[in-house]
Amino acid sequence: MLMNGMPRRAVMGGAAAMTAFGARAQPKPATGTPPAVITSPPRQWGHDAPPDIYPDPDIIVADPGFNQYLLGITAIRRVATGFKWTEGPAWSSEGQYLVFSDVQANTQYRCIWETGRVSKFRSPSYNSNGNSFDFQGRQLSTQDFNRRVIRWEHDGTMTVIADQFEGKGLNSPNDLVPHPDGSIWFTDPPYGDSLSEGHPDEGGLANPAIGAPDAGVIGGKKRELPNSVYRWDPSGRLDVVVTESQLPDPNGLCFSPDYKTLYVISTGKGPGDQGPGGNGNVFAFDVQGTRLGGMRMFTDMMVDGMKCGPDGMRADVFGNLWISSNAVLGYAGVIVFNAQGKLLGRIRLPEVCANVAFGGPKRNMLFMCASQSLYLLQVQTQGAAPG
């Protein structure tokens, strides 16, 4: 998970402290020198902040085609803050709520649409990361601590979807998406194999059992597999569909609206990686039944000469990709591309963004998990898939 060429966890401390937007790409300031801002005084956030002018100055139109997906009389809103690292937003159309993870806090939260109230949903969450809902409305989650993919059934029971491949424990499943045929596709990088977001491998300098006596009891005790993208079939069969040699450190993923294309993000070097890690690009694959082919780069995430490290993404019904951006102020937030990979625009946030999801009763509300906060923007399009 790269931010401006660095693993995002290495710079989270500085990114979380940023409270103002950058007007353009900012050089690294000297110690004690704040970055420039686009408004004076800086924009304020939260329920008690003064109202913002329409149209929102932090919605940047790079191509006129972006305007059709925007609502001029709306503004980016911060729904809640005070988290450690928000991830995995997913919308329950049946329950009318958003679920998301605070990975480091070992907690899942739920935002109820009717009241806007955010409260703990599952704690401990076993360092849940990615979340989604399948076509039957059942919640799907990845658990970094237990290194597995699970599904919550309608009766409240839990089903383990996958925790091993060919007898070897998974690394730390990260993001996942359902397919209409009942299959579940997920990435398995090693980012959760750490003290802060799961548990490290046994045999290293860190003792995974300190403060976490169940480390390794459920799920892997140490890394045994390369980073891969998997397809789980309802029959229980698990297959590798993208290998580490094809795409190192796979992270976020999503289908196109017609399910003919799978997009996968390659991010930075993780715990235990022997190679250089991913390159922070987004790739597209042709879905060929239960397999993938035709790998090609969709975008290198370069905007104005700035590398906007991607993490998670969602497609809308028009085939546009809304991709999270880990970058310096002014470029942190969400970057939007059309189905041909053309930059349409971006949404600037005062924090780096990990993942996004469409929600709300009409599924026209863009929820953005951005490090310590959850943001919301009403748009003129809808999410293409459940969750």
* CATH architecture type: 6 Propeller
> Under the CATH scheme, which class?
Mainly Beta
What's the number of structural domains? 1
Biggest β-sheet description = 5 strands, antiparallel
Write the CATH homologous superfamily: TolB, C-terminal domain
Give the overall shape.
globular
| Structural class determined from secondary elements | mainly beta
N/C terminus separation? 22 Å
* CATH-assigned fold name: Neuraminidase
Considering DSSP H and I runs of 4 or more, what fraction of the residues is helical? Answer: under 10%
Q: How are the strands of the biggest sheet laid out side by side?
A: 3-28-27-26-25
The mean pLDDT is: 90
Percent of residues in β-strands: 35-45%
Q: Uncertain segments of ≥5 residues (pLDDT<50)?
A: 1-32
Task: Tell how many strands the DSSP assignment holds.
Answer: 31
Q: How many individual helices?
A: 1
Radius of gyration: 19 Å
